[in-house]
Structure formats: C-alpha cells, structure tokens
Amino acid sequence: MTIASGSAAVVCGVGAALPSRIVSNADLTARLNTTDDWIHSRTGIRRRYVAGVDLSTTDLAVRAAEQALTEGEPVRVEALVVATTTPDRCCPALAPTVATRLGLTGIPACDLAAGCTGFLYALATAAGLIAAGTARVVLVVGADRLAVLPDPEDRTTVPLFGDGAGAVVLRRGSMDETGALGPVVLGSDGTGADLIRASIPGTLEMDGAEVFRHAVDRMSAATCQAATAAGWELGDIDRLAPHQANSRITSFVARQLGVPDHRQLGNIAETGNIGAASIPVLLAGAAADGRLKPGHRTLLTAFGAGLTWGATTLTWPDLSLTHLPRGAGHDR
Ligand code: UT7
C-alpha cells in the first residue's frame, strides 16, 4: 500500500541515543560457542551497545528526541509517535511518558509496533497526521532494546541484536523543500509471523536463513516501488539507508538495485540490529560525519518481524548537526 500525503512532511531535526556499554564480539566469545570471525563474516557486526537495567526504552527514546529537538529547527511539537517492539511494559504505551518527560504533556502520543520496519510505519503515520490537520509538527522516535530478547545462551541470536533510539522531527511543508518525505510504501505478510517471534524474557526464535531471503526480496522491491512513486530512477539515489540487520542482506539489496558501495550508508559493525532505531540512528550518524549531505536523494528501506516491510524517499535537509551518535559513524 502506498500513502501519498496531500501536504508534505519535511524533516527538520534528527537525533540519536545509544547506551554507553559496549559488548564486543570478543566479550561474546568468552561466554558463547562462537568466534569473532563467524559473527563478523556472517553479519558484519563487530560490537553492539547494550543498555543496563538503569536505562529503559523510554530513557533512550527521550534522549534521542531531546537531541532531535535541539539540533534542528526550533519548532513546537504537536504530536508524538514512538515505534518500538520492546516497550518497558505492555500498558500503558511509553509515548505519553516520553511526551511528558519532554515537557509536552497534552499532545497526542502513541506507540506503534511493526518490528524493524516500525520507523517507516511511524514516518507514514506522522505524515498522515500532518496531512489530516491533526498536527503541524510531529516527533517520530524509533526505540528498541532488542538485546533483551534472545536467550542469553543462544549463539544464533545473541550476537545479532543491540539497543538504541533515533528520532526525527517532521513539520508541515512542501514537496519542493529539501527534507521533504516522499510517498511511503508499506506492506505486511502474516503468513510469515512465525519466522521471527519473541516473548519476554529470553525466547526469541528466528528462522534466520528464511528471514534473510525475505529481507532481500522485500527491501529490494519496496525500494523500487518507493523510487517509482517519488518519480525517481534507481540511478537518482545518492544514498541508500537500509535497516541494519546484516551487512550481507544490505549488500545483496544494493547489488540487486545497482547502488554502488560509496552510495550505501551502514553502521551495523558498531550497533548490530537495533530494530526501529536502526534507520534514524544511521541517518543521524551519517549526517553528523558528512556521509549524508544536504540535498542527497536518500532512499530508506526496512524489513522486519510480522513480516513487515517499507521504503520511502527523502531529500536530506540542511541541518546543523554537532553530535555524532556514539558508534553510528563508522564502516558498513
Ligand atoms: O531485522 C530483521 C530480523 N532479522 C534478520 O534480518 C536476520 C536475517 N538472517 C540472518 O542475518 C542470518 O541468517 C543469520 C546471521 C541469522 C545466520 O547466518 P546464516 O549464514 O544464515 O547461518 P545459518 O543460520 O545457516 O547457520 C550456519 C551455521 C550453523 O551450523 P551448521 O548447522 O551448519 O553446523 C549454525 O549452527 O552456523 C552456525 N552458527 C554459528 N556458528 C558460530 C549460527 N550462529 C553461530 C554463531 N557462531 N554465533
């Protein structure tokens, strides 16, 4: 399904927050039957950031949002959408608490769960709120603590996941502005619901190889659809910003689409898979370290549990960013 908003949503702020604690592959090899070589060669991951008990998903969301609000245009936020599959509790949603901690009590605020595609679903929701006249400025946060999900003894899942949060601010604007979000392509397939499933604590189950295949196919197809919907050729893409689950997945996607290495953004070596936080943390890091520049025609695409997938276009705005999110600015 494609949602094209009547009035455009324009990105005017971006931020990210990662825990201070790093868990390297060497840390994992000390307690699991695995090797740095296996993890890095099969996934691209070298380390990940893992929150301690004193840092909740809500805390990460607040920190990312604060950075997005201080580093972008001065705006008054009128609604908040938080994408997460790892809220601190089932009920209530964490978004109202995040809003209150940001001094925004009273605004519409809700959570949204769409696995690792959550951030794109949240962008589409925010663009819809703007088009509907509900809000002129919407704060969108992707926050996850995926490291809490695997059985700590499971070498097939523990190395893959980390924790973090990223945020963007969207305001009402016009399609010809830099920062304008294009049509958002979204999809789901519940027949694959069992391919990645989790209950807390410690029971994440995933058919990795099958998920890998779906991820490549769905992200490639969604990217083509989003580019077409925006009137772009694939060759117009200056930067591909894919959800970071496995560097082999993103390489396959880029190869299928003909996007050369220097146009791909990645940070998986540093963060692992951080779910709904993946794309905004990637964008914040790449913008801060200069890999993503104002005017770059950027294609965002994601795939995750559900199954869910999505993609959209974004012409990167001119933001003055000073904070490089820890770990988010390094190799693919
Ligand atoms: O955000 C969306 C959600 N997730 C994803 O997109 C993940 C998608 N899937 C993947 O990224 C990959 O499938 C994995 C990284 C999960 C696994 O890589 P793979 O190349 O598909 O490996 P595999 O599952 O086929 O396992 C190959 C071998 C197995 O051993 P045998 O049966 O061949 O003897 C595994 O037991 O590698 C073994 N293995 C490990 N060995 C050392 C699995 N995990 C490890 C490990 N260390 N950590």
From TrEMBL:
Pathway assignment: Lipid metabolism
Does the keyword section mention Cytoplasm?
yes
GO MF term list: 3-oxoacyl-[acyl-carrier-protein] synthase activity; beta-ketoacyl-acyl-carrier-protein synthase III activity
Q: Does the keyword Ion transport apply?
A: no
GO terms, biological process: fatty acid biosynthetic process; secondary metabolite biosynthetic process
The Beta-ketoacyl-[acyl-carrier-protein] synthase III C-terminal domain covers: 229-316
**Which keywords does UniProt give here?**
Acyltransferase, Cytoplasm, Fatty acid biosynthesis, Fatty acid metabolism, Lipid biosynthesis, Lipid metabolism, Transferase
For this protein, the record's CDD domains field holds: KAS_III
SUPFAM superfamilies named among the record's database cross-references: Thiolase-like
> InterPro entries, alphabetically?
ACP_syn_III_C, ACP_syn_III_N, FabH, Thiolase-like
Domain Beta-ketoacyl-[acyl-carrier-protein] synthase III N-terminal residue range list: 111-190
The source's superkingdom equals Bacteria
Which EC numbers characterise this protein's activity in its record?
2.3.1.180
Pfam family of this protein, just one?
ACP_syn_III_C
Family from the record: Belongs to the thiolase-like superfamily. FabH family.
| The name this protein goes by in its record | 3-oxoacyl-[acyl-carrier-protein] synthase-3
The organism is: Sphaerisporangium rubeum
